[in-house]
Protein: Aminotransferase
Organism: Arenibacter certesii
Amino acid sequence: KNHLSDRINSMSTSATLAMAAKARELKNEGKDIIGLSLGEPDFNIPEFIKEAAKEAIDQNYSSYSPVDGYADLKEAIANKFKRDNGLTYGPSQIVVSTGAKQSLANVAMVMLNHGDEVILPAPYWVSYSDIVKLAEGVPVEVPTSIDTDFKMTPAQLENAITPKTKMIWFSSPCNPSGSVYSKEELEGLAAVLRKHPNIFIVSDEIYEHINFKGNHVSIANVEGMYDRTVTVNGVSKAFAMTGWRIGYIGAPEWIAKACNKFQGQITSGANAIAQRATIAALNAPVSSIKFMIDEFHKRRDIVLELLGEIEGFNLNVPEGAFYVFPDISSFFGKTLNGTTINNASDFSLYLLEKANVATVTGEAFGNENCIRISYAASEKELREAIARIKAVL
Ligand code: PLP
């Protein structure tokens, strides 16, 4: 008998982390694996942030912090929201957590009751669906395709809404598609939501700076949306601080208070040293990370060009984040070097086994026709990986 809870038994393992583990295993066996499965910037943390962390240790920031974060960190976050997003959030509207992943889990746990529906435009970030289910919510996937640049239209949103709809969760720039919603597109969605005042929004903006097109737009800034939007962000992607585990929200005060209460029973708050370092990160001008964004932009263009040379890859042009999400369904039903490819998982595994390149199946993100390739890797690795992929196809 399995003595574990139904809760954990029904949860899927994070597909991105599973792929990374598998790639690591093969690497340990001596295989020359190129890992393009993780959403992790391959840069070092900028020096000034490391210095702030060292100072914090020396200044004995070793006690519990306030559950929702240090007051001066919340002030830095408020200034950041104002500076980058034109959003006004006071300290009582901000909660600092152990990564944006925990911020999302907090929101799910305080907002959802059993059976509440959460609309997820698919492809969506891998964890949304399981976080929602953990909170007894019901994920309602709205499939999009490469034909609409993987974005949900207002009509699709309207059709997905039922009396049970409680929330909509999405990321822009999107992981995994790299798509960025324009102001007009967000206004289109907001026009539908204005007719449904009891639907709340989670706007995951963790890739906001990694945007090659122009200005990032926060849906909380669109008319009527501020009072029902939780804006989620963090330092993992913009500052290459994935392992430091700091994320945060700006939200209506009643939601922030509930998250604070919840977190008080679960973690007691985020790591003190990482919080101090985050103050330095957020207070720095955005120009201090422009080098990373320029580098991602360059790599995106290289990856698109090289993948575009492979017959059977159907590509959109991602405008942000650091992923491409090619539609590879033209390979379904084909047999390559003795392996039959029936779906995106088969394709991704085939690339791992035959080309020694780790990618992630689109099925993990609610899309069966695509795979995700992260270009948070060096140009040399990317060129080598794509050459190998081409060779085995
Ligand atoms: N949201 C999206 C869209 C992500 O891609 C990620 C990380 O991959 C997260 C949230 C979680 O970030 P954090 O490291 O802050 O938990």
About this structure: The domain at 47-285 is CATH 3.40.640.10 (Aspartate Aminotransferase; domain 2).
